[in-house]
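Design a sequence for this backbone.
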């Protein structure tokens, strides 16, 4: 069971989400505007579903405002199809998005995938050159200093590092990182990879290679410890 917040200015969408997820055993609180969600409620949530286009404060602004204080996955629920808008949203710290209209099955699968990732536990670490993947602490360290990744960025790095040398397509990265077997939006993965690379480049390293026409891989040279 998870505590889920759903914010959307369309009551019909909220009713749809609430019914679908409560039948999965979750507790769902709904709101038609971000002003109805106190900071305490947001911090207590296990996952937030956030509409992008709302009167007053929109989903992008709200995500950017709370991302530093809210640790749970944030999924945008949006009718927008413009790639720049979606890329911008992911850059603000959102983990994923669901495009309207969506089915009950897709909603449940995406929510379950992100909640499952939150509880996934591993007792070991993995060293790749000067990188250390701490699977129990959910951190990537370079020369013993943790790199600050979002949850989605960490999940992608973890999947690539655990399979160093193997090439993953964008869809395979999505499935490996989030556990949702469906068609991902390539712009989401591209944006996450871009953000990951920027943080790695700031450390003076570029371990993620692009294999043109196929996907991405983390350079080989791994050792479990």
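Sequence:
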């Amino acid at each position: 069971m998870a505590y889920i917040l759903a914010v959307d200015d369309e009551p019909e969408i909220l009713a749809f989400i609430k019914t679908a997820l409560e039948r999965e055993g979750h507790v769902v609180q709904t709101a038609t505007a971000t002003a109805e969600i106190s900071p305490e409620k947001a911090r207590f949530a296990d996952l937030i579903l956030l509409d992008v286009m709302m009167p007053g404060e929109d989903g992008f602004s709200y995500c950017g405002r709370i991302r530093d204080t809210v640790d749970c996955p944030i999924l945008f629920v949006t009718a927008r199809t413009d790639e720049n808008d979606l890329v911008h949203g992911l850059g603000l710290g959102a983990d994923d998005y669901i495009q309207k209209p969506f089915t009950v099955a897709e909603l449940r699968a995406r929510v379950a995938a992100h909640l499952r990732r939150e509880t996934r536990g591993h007792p070991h670490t993995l060293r790749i050159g000067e990188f250390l993947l701490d699977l129990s602490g959910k951190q990537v360290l370079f020369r013993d200093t943790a790199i600050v990744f979002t949850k989605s960025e960490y999940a992608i790095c973890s999947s690539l590092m655990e399979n160093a040398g193997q090439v993953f397509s964008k869809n395979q990265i999505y499935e490996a990182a989030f556990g949702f077997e469906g068609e991902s939006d390539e712009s989401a993965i591209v944006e996450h990879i871009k953000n990951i690379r920027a943080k790695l480049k700031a450390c003076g390293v570029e371990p993620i290679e692009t294999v043109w026409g196929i996907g991405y891989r983390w350079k080989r040279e791994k050792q479990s410890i």
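DSSP finds eight helices and twelve strands in the chain.
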